[in-house]
Model the fold of this input.
Amino acid sequence: MLSSFKGDLKPFEELARSFAAKELAGKTEGHDRYPFGEFFHDVLDKACEAGFLGIMLPGDLGGTGGSIGTLCVVLGALCRADSSPGGIVFTNALVQEILLAADARDIAGEIFGKASSAGDFLVAFPSYANPAHQDNLPEYRRSGRGYSLTGPVDLLVLGGLARRAIIPARTGSGHQCSFFLVDLDHKGVLKSEPVFTLGMHACPAVDIRFDGVRARIVGEEGKGDEYFDRVSPALHVAAAAMNAGIMRGSLDEALAYARERFQGGREIIRWSEVSMLLAGMAVKADVAEMCVTLACQALEQGKAGWSSRCTASALHIHEIACEVVTDGIQVLGGNGYMKDYGQEKRFRDARQVQALLGSVPARKLDLIGKVAGI
Amino acid sequence: MLSSAEVSNRLSGFPRFEDMSLSLPYAPRMPRGMVRETRKVVAIARTFNDEVARPRALDLDRKTHEDPDYMPRDLVELANRWGFYTMWIPRIFGGKGYNMPSMSYFAEEIGSVCLGIMNVIGVHYLGVAGVVASANTRLAKRILGEVVQGEKTGNPCLIALATTEPGAGTDVEEVELVDKGRVACHARRVEGGYVVNGTKVFISMGHVSTWTVLYAYEDLKKPSETTVGLMVKTGTQGFSFGTHENKMGQRVCPASVLVFEDCFIPDDQVLFSADMVRKFTKKPIREVTQRYIDYVVGATRPGVCAFGVGAARGAFEIALRHASTTTMNGTLLINHEWVQSTLAEMYKNVALGRLAYTEANYANSHRGLYKILQLKPVYYYLRFMPQAYFDKVIAPMLEKDYSTRLMGKLSYDWTRPEDQRCCSGWASLAKVAGTDIGVRNCQMAVELMGQAGLRQDAGVEKMLRDIKLLQIYEGTNQLNRLNVFKCLIAPEIPQARVFEEKM
Done:
């Protein structure tokens, strides 16, 4: 939908669609078997070649130089087929936006400017948490000219695949967090096996424990929460675009099934109860895409006061996405619950996407705090 | 004041008072021994949870992802050793004869830890219901007797029930739909029995059951009038298993594909057929078949409600533990008002779900499948007579044709249509309510817990995966809502038609 309003996004959308058709369609169940099956390194390499791992990163830093709209059309098209690659693209975009918000172009240039493969491009980040809401961040202390980190990080997304991570940490006494660049190959880094989670199995996370690991500050000390807040509205919209894509995929499959499956002597789409389910899904899928479209336009135009509206839209989209994927299974009945179809994965993935950037209740409280100015 | 005739007149208006609150008239009629028995059942379930279910649930789920062909044979043996497969088989058939409503409380307990494990135990009773509701006492005695023997010898004997076909799910649950559906499991009458060809799908515990209650059709163009119930033993020539379905949740409980190729079933394994039905009732076979379906699902759907309530409670308990041990902004989550409100909402859902299955069980206890068992004299007679009496005096009678005819008359001829509607309607109402509540609570718990809720090792994401199936099996909740309308609302509206929509 967004590309209908902004023609320059059409090539990106087409690229992502053809990538999804070629690399993801029909293979999602196999990809989703990770960590009990193979990881799709080949797909990731091709995603990197297509420029998906640095969509919003400026060209001079090794990125594609796209806008939030570009990121959203790519995420929507990918997640319509399989949200795991979307989760990887999202996490890398989140890292890059934080580096830019912190004006750490030097670090971004060092990482992405010289990157030649997906392995070089990936940077891990605890994407399911807002550091401001976490009481148990690792502790940092000055160590010579640099810093060192000690403590745990749960669900570090891409932590088992990337060589580097951006990690939020606090001092023992401070409340404000700071971001640090960490080498995950350092001997003081203890990694778990990939954590088995609800959805997006091929966008894996690990639990990490740091023990006096050398770290490089990102931006200024104590400004981590501010950087996160600055990038948060756009990344909320990006996560919403993922769920809008999942909703579209769910509707596609439900419609196709309802046209073919017979019950009581006719196609189930011709029973009004099923039609009503499908209508509800269609309404929500369209509303979600319109919200993403408008939010992208507002963000790109830098409209004042739209940050909280973007976050609100995203929260709403996640909520209706979880409803759509539930109905998406219902339309397919028993088949919808089986891995031979895509609906059960979407049911899991939509919840996983909803949890990006922190817990829903905490984000709602944040939102109303900002709206009310308290 | 109103005369008694006026009172009756007022109470017969919609909603009829006797359908409104089942516990009000029926609770006082409940034998008091049922309470003691149910307390014992819940205590057994809690012990099993601590000793078996809780320590294994997450590991087993993980194991099924590592090995999608995993079969829960160890678990079945354990459940058999605990005596779970005969607990709700009536004593006249050699079982322990616990009161049927107590199974719902049991299901809630085990379901609060793992729905998959509960299904490994519970779906056997769907098969038992299929056997008992047929009124075929001779075959019931034989099959249920094997289950009892299986417990004594340590070789579990479970019963699966097979209705769903690749082309027909919802259709096979309603005679109004089945004639228009795409059923394909054919039973051809031959000398001495039937020859079956066809495929059944999504059959819980098929691979690990000894017997399967199989429904097939003599005439695929008129399935509602030619339904045949057959008992098929695993290993019978022409009966094989296809793939093991790859489900989102409840993975410890296999869903099997059953394939029948020229599978001969002898007459002595025919559970239900038009010929048999004609021996005890003159009612149209179509009507009796719907009654048979209603008896089975009317008894088992309140159980599915209890499964859902179990998951709702499990999600609540996990969220409660998380909130009691996790801080946000320096304060324990449990001390945030929004968390207290969320937990209270979840607790409320559990309590309302429990009321729903309790009401549906009252319907069955006094107007449905096992109403005879719940009459006080019968209840105490069955409870206190020595087992040897049933084995030596009653059991031989069950072999006789008059026994089946009597059971058939009691179940199909001497019953009121309004009782059937009440039981079936309440069963569907409870099933929808309990399973929707279960899904809702699991969703709330995942949201409340944030990233911790996404982890398999935290337990609640598995519950969300497990619970979703309950909105689908035993009739989708969409079908069950229509059944609520058909049974509890439409009879009051003469112009209402169900399953006849023009579009």
Notes: The radius of gyration of chain B is 23 Å. Chain B has 20 helices and ten strands.
